[in-house]
Amino acid sequence: MPRRYFWAAILGVMASLAFPAGAAEQVPAAIVRVEHPRPLPISRLDLPPEDLGLAGARLATADNNTTGGFLGQEFALSEHVAAPEGAVAALEAALADGALFVVTMADADTTLALADAAGERALILNALAPDDRLRGEDCRANVLHLAPSRAMLADALAQFLMVKRWSDWLLIEGSHPGDQLQAEAYRRAAAKFGARIVEERVFEDTGGARRTDSGHVQVQAQMPVFTQRAPEHHVLVAADENDVFASHLPYHTWDARPVAGSAGLMPVSWHPALEAWGGTQLQNRFERLAARPMRPKDYAAWMALRAVGEAATRTQATDLATLRDYMTGPEFGLGVFKGQSASFRPWDGQLRQPVLLAAGDVVVSVSPQDQFVHQVSPLDTLGTDQPETTCSRG
Amino acid sequence: MRKLLATAALAALATPGAAYTVYVSNERGNSITILDSETLEVLEEVPVGQRPRGINLSPDGRFLYILASDDNTVQVMDTETQQIIHNLPSGPDPELGVLHPSGNPLYVANEDDNLVTAIDVETRTILAEIPVGIEPEGMGVSPDGKVVVNTSETTNMAHFINAETYEIFANILVDSRPRFAQYAADGSLLYVSAEIGGTVSVIDPSVPEIVHKITFDVPGIPPEALQPVGVRVTSDGKKVYVALGPSNRVALVDGETWEVLEYFLTGQRVWQLAFTPDEKRLFTTNGISNDITVIDVENDEVIASVPVGQQPWGVAVSPN
Question: Does the interface predicted TM-score (ipTM) exceed 0.90?
């Protein structure tokens, strides 16, 4: 018996045990959140809430069940939080529960390990890892990406800066691998949209405690020195995914220039201030459920399971193959409260979606900017387009 | 008698013939702009509650119901004095409403609370709260007053509600983010627009089932900008006008073949539509350009655009 049919048979038995047959058709899903060790954020306002991501998945499940109640479908969610070494075991537990759709919140390597472990048994919905290689040379046929890639985020910011005619950038990157990859995405975006990086600097993370200096002690003296004697530039672009230094750049730079990227004007998939396109309703629903503002990771998990719900609603099916094919097919479109329909790019499984540019308490703009056009969809001006893809997911 | 006097006063201001009063809610301006349908002269901009969106006129034109979303209430304006005379209990965040053909009750979609509220406009009490899908918005009522239709933007359904029992008796799945539901005058068809899906579903409400989906295509406009919202149908059922949001177009659709016959250029982000009672003119609200566009329905041409308040949303025209 080919392996996939074997698993399907086993899964059928398990599913019938875990989700006893009722009047409604069951759509079993899971979320696996992997806890990678991370230093504290610079600001205590950014401390991760305990239910980060999970709350988004819960809201999507509730939203799906409202529709499902009218159509005789029931959506179930099992939640798993694991250390990196326990990630695959958590996935196996979720699959043993019958999950066919697994939202993952993990780094790139762990996401790949989970995808390869799941194989044909489940569809992996990446709600966290922004790595372009997961959409490129390391792409997998059983993975869809809800989190925007680094290239999408960088392109979204680059478009806005070019519309502003802020074409000369001072690029400051952190010393961690993620920072370097984000910096690479900015280099690529600069080349793509005609910006000029006048100089690059690396801010070394030398470790140390976070809570000793909220900005006014040594940072106030260090940051101006670090940023001085830069060539003439319009804007400082920071690549600091690990939240080591970028939040300390605004108002501490040597030159009076705006900061963008990892601080100041930030490209994000979601922001709790967004009210346009019915956003208020999603914010309110989430805040009622979680008693806190919705973060991008919650939003990605919410989109992941809403995509499953949308496919189940439209196809009136609950099996993995039908839903997966519909989600990646041309008919699929998901309302994501950003003014236009979101859909998956067939070449790499990335969700095409608008990217918000937010600063502090407000949404400043939304990319793609009107000035950038595309022969298929303006959304495909963000990130890796079909002709450039290195993914061969088929 | 008061009505006669009012009509006489209005007639003195306007050109002779069919002059009606047009009311436009300004979502950001917290006001209602009042203008003459014939001269297109702005007569008044009246301050009202916060974030007025949907507006409905009583069948006799005497009262304007203003859904003040951020005040969680329905304000009632006496159209003769242009004063707010009282509020109706609406439930939270009322967005769009529809009046029973008799003028009572008023059915309101509470966008934030997944409810449709039926309000008795005379006793000013809530008659029923009907749980529907997520983010209810579009509201329609059958011409015989027996069926209320609500569309829910995230559940993507048209819910058919029995107007007597307040029970949902059918649900039709439509395309993504349905914004508006409009019956043809004879009740034989129901049009439901889907903003993100980019379609208008034509529904046979007697089954109910979708019999056709109208799609739109404007050269040079990206398909995702063609976002159908407001729908109005001439009383003979032959012409269907569809507001297409950020494409800044209103489509004219043949009510029998459902072919798109024409696209009219309007102001920016066109959402809601209203005819004059004689169906000679159609008014659009253009939320981004702070104006309304006037379409001559007989000749099917755009004849004017008129600046109104900030971010116009709803529009209603007096019956006389």
Answer: no
